[in-house]
Amino acid sequence: MGFDAWFFWRMDQKEADLREANKEHEWIHRPTPDSFGTDYQLFTHKLKYDYGSPHGFNFDVFGSDPIFQSDKRMTTYNADEQGEKFAEYLEDYAGHFSTNQILVLMGMDFQWINAFQNYWNMDNMIEFMNKKYEGKYILKYSTPSDYVDDL
């Protein structure tokens, strides 16, 4: 089909538990050599959590999570607290993979109603996290292709 990689969430629970124990959420899938030879391979990424925004970071109008306010002049400023929560999420999430790159999805199908609101929050969060945790994290917008290329 021309794929270089594929990403998915649902898998048999026994296999998911085994991959979890061995930090094997990413692997190279090779079909049976008898059928396809040895030239075919596919980078495979099993998402640790579902394919929505991390818990506490759904910024859309129908979400109940707080905005990511990094302007200290605002009474709704919460970047220190929210940044710490997101850093904890990143530490937990990264602990399930064997590389120093992780893919964090921010939304799911039919979730976003107000793109401006979502990107405003993510822009604030990315800028704040990259400054506060400089050298530890580099947050950026990416694509699955960029992620695979970085690996």
Task: Tell me what the structure shows.
The protein has a single domain (5-150), classed as 7-stranded beta/alpha barrel (Alpha-Beta Barrel), CATH 3.20.110.10. Helices cover 36% and strands 9% of the residues. The protein is built from five helices and three strands; from the N terminus they run βαβαβααα. Strands 1-3-2 form a three-stranded mixed sheet, covered by helices on one side. The two termini are 22 Å apart.
**What distance lies between the first and last C-alpha atoms, to the nearest angstrom?**
22 Å
Top-tier CATH class: Alpha Beta
Number of helices: 5
**Helical coverage, percent range:** 25-40%
Please state the structural category.
mainly alpha
Q: Which features would summarize this protein structure in a list?
A:
151 residues, mainly alpha, 7-stranded beta/alpha barrel, 3-stranded mixed beta sheet, 5 helices, elongated
In short:
With 151 residues, the chain is mainly α.
Give the helices and strands, then pairings.
Blueprint: E1 5-8, H1 13-21, E2 26-29, H2 33-36, E3 42-46, H3 79-94, H4 115-132, H5 144-150
Parallel strand pairs: 1-3
Antiparallel strand pairs: 2-3
